[in-house]
Design brief:
alpha/beta, 16 helices, 5-stranded mixed sheet, 37% helix, 7-stranded parallel sheet
């Protein structure tokens, strides 16, 4: 057998593990993403799952077995000390209380794979209070109150970060690469993986969801465009790039034509100016992410054209894959080893993800979750959302319609009342009051 030496980050992780032992992750959520993380961690050197929190033990136990662990490796634990005892004995603790993850002393870093803005917010705050780094595989929470959570983490001396492998962090890798070479960032975003149907509802996708081993609501969150709007808002909030128009353009362009379309009008494209986030529904980019760049010197443009990157003057840098939750442990490891986030919001508002009604909604109705039949995400510049009093997508769940809302109408604080009992609602209200200074 050929011996292949570890290189780069893999070598650094192996050396860290030899010196200090594996990095221990506390995982919240054991759905599709959480199960992936449990399996992936079992394949890696230097990282392990110490505990999993879920409302019922069935899914965590199934994930532990799927990862190849022996029967009995997953053990029910109640309380932080019980979680620690299971970890010390070499097992994976399973608990129904996310507070157990945050308080357990043997856990180094928490991963949120719940997808709920409210659960993600409370989990992150609890992790930070307990001195734990937090990896958010929960972009819905991040775009709603991420700036607050990041600031709390900095004050506590821990890391708050988005997850490697998710499209936003994968896109940021390309943006950082281009910026380090002094290139102008024209546009950045993703190729949309699933067909786009703004009116999609779970009832129409139950069969496909079963085939793909997915929850139908989660599948619809991708198909109706909500996830794309959320992800592009997250990129904007970490970089200062903005949607060019509300809802973005989403052109049907290919890998070969992307840089000639998602560029400024001055360069023959559709954007009003450089520095935009957007997505494409064309072929050849999905399941990857892209960054359209423009070198700042004719010689560099000539060289990139000569290297077959494209005809110029704008070029597409494309990462042709993203491994979603399979890459998540890398963010957990970097948070512990280097105390460095892979993705963190800037300290000012940039973009907003609002919500548009999918159907006629009657006054008094309580709205359901993202990906159901009530509404879909809609990205816009923050100032535009502020002027329209747009209800953030992350506050739409459990909001009450205060008057009739027509299909296609934007949900706003004038026609909806967010659930004031939720922590995420109260924190967002504080952020909104503080953000008044950015309107001056």
């Amino acid at each position: 057998m050929t011996t292949i030496d570890r290189v780069g980050f893999a070598a650094e992780l192996a050396a860290y593990t030899e010196a200090k032992g594996p990095i221990t992750i506390g995982l919240a959520g054991a759905g599709q993403m959480g199960t992936d993380i449990v399996v992936q961690a079992a394949l890696m050197t230097g990282v392990r799952i110490g505990a999993i929190a879920a409302s019922r033990p069935t899914r965590p136990m199934e994930a532990i077995a799927m990862a190849g662990h022996a029967e009995g490796h997953g053990r029910i634990a109640s309380g932080a000390s019980a979680v620690d005892r299971v970890i010390e004995a070499g097992g994976i603790a399973v608990t129904d209380d996310i507070a157990d993850l945050c308080a357990a002393g043997r856990i180094d870093v928490i991963v949120d794979a719940t997808g709920s803005p409210e659960v993600g917010t409370t989990l992150a705050l609890d992790a930070i209070r307990n001195g734990k780094h937090i990896v958010m595989l929960n972009v819905e929470a991040d775009i709603t109150v991420g700036r607050h959570l990041a600031a709390e983490a900095r004050r506590a001396g821990v890391v708050y970060t988005g997850s490697a492998g998710d499209e936003p962090a994968s896109t940021l890798e390309l943006i950082a690469f281009a910026q380090s070479l002094g290139m102008e960032i024209v546009a950045a975003g993703k190729g949309k993986n699933n067909p786009l149907d703004f009116n999609a509802v779970p009832d129409d996708y139950e069969e496909e969801a079963r085939r793909r081993n997915m929850n139908a609501r989660m599948l619809v969150e991708f198909i109706d465009g909500s996830k794309t709007m959320v992800e592009m808002t997250a990129i904007a909030n970490c970089t200062g790039l903005v949607p060019d128009v509300a809802g973005m353009h989403g052109p049907n362009v290919t890998r070969e034509t992307l840089a000639q379309v998602l560029c400024s009008k001055a360069d023959g494209g559709i954007l009003s100016a450089p520095g935009r986030v957007d997505y494409t529904i064309g072929t050849g980019v999905a399941p990857g992410v892209f960054c359209v760049v423009k070198p700042r010197h004719e010689r560099a443009i000539e060289r990139m054209a000569d290297l077959k990157v494209g005809p110029g003057p704008c070029f597409s840098l494309i990462r042709p894959f993203h491994l979603t939750s399979l890459e998540t442990p890398l963010s957990a490891v970097r948070a512990v080893m280097y105390r460095r986030p892979d993705m963190e919001p800037v300290d000012r508002p940039v973009a907003e993800c609002g919500a548009i009604a999918k159907r006629n909604i009657e006054a008094g109705e309580i709205l359901g979750r993202i990906g159901q039949a009530d509404y879909r995400g809609h990205a816009m510049v923050w100032q535009e959302g502020r002027e329209a009093r747009a209800l953030p997508l992350g506050l739409a769940e459990k909001a009450r319609a205060s008057r009739p809302i027509k299909a296609g109408e934007l949900l706003t604080h004038a026609n909806c009342t967010a659930d004031a009992s939720l922590v995420v609602t109260r924190i967002r209200a504080d952020l909104d009051r503080a953000d008044q200074r950015f309107l001056a």
